[in-house]
């Protein structure tokens, strides 16, 4: 990896990061934008009562609120409270605040050992350390938060299900999210069914909470990515590099470089950057390239780094064929995030 710089212009394609297993474990904390996420700061949309209802249930799950006391009459027993399951699964579309609530659980739970990471980070940890070593490191932890649980790879899903089963047996609580297309009636419930089917050995351990709503990232923007011409791009990069570090790369070269770096290391590709510049964006037609770019966008979004770009608008980077295929959910999530990141640079 190249020497870190405090100001100036760098190239993502010059970076070849190496991340050790211990560093990966230490990095399992909420992304920076959720450092201060609490249940109190979660802005529930009154138009969707499931948001407030889910928040209250999760507060009880995290130990942040007392269970309500229901008293019976003189000759009646108080109704028995339902048994709390060791896991919760937050089901809903993009931008309804699932990750905020997941981070709020992490911060609220009075736990000595707790971890927060994306599905790909946990599977990467298993890949780096081996299954047995990962289990030993995580065994006995109080809480495991898994953001964006993926159901695409049967092998990874099976490994994670087995891992979670061993951790629950040792007393670990689990909280997970995944994404469904925004405003797609019914699809969230199908996602919940998919999740429970794929982790069938663990399905009884999870309570599913449906969170309805619209993508908060789309509430204040027009739904399209910001695209610059060459002159405006050059000015943005120059200004971004004046007091911090900005990257300037040709889009196609970044896509090729991502194939040479394991997705678990993408976070190091953007280490120290305050602005990312992508020149000559074009539509992606190769599925593997597109999925790697999605993983990269997730890390950029976690780090909240603004993006400037020229060429094809970033909300059109995935072909129509891809948007109609099996990875539609991932591509729509990436588009939502790219829209937000390009507007934050505007």
Summed up:
With 346 residues, the chain is α/β, with parallel strands linked by helices.
Could you explain how this protein is built, in words?
The chain is α/β, with parallel strands linked by helices. Helix content is 41%, strand content 15%. The protein has 13 helices and nine strands. The protein has helices at residues 21-26, 49-61, 98-108, 119-129, 131-138, 154-169, 187-198, 230-242, 251-258, 266-269, 287-303, 320-323, 328-345; strands at 8-10, 87-93, 114-118, 143-147, 173-180, 206-211, 245-250, 275-281, 307-311. A five-stranded parallel β-sheet has the order 3-4-5-2-6, with helices on both faces. Strands 1-7-8-9 form a four-stranded parallel β-sheet. It is globular. Residues 65-72 and 181-187 have low confidence and may be disordered.
Observed structural traits:
single chain; alpha/beta; five-stranded parallel β-sheet
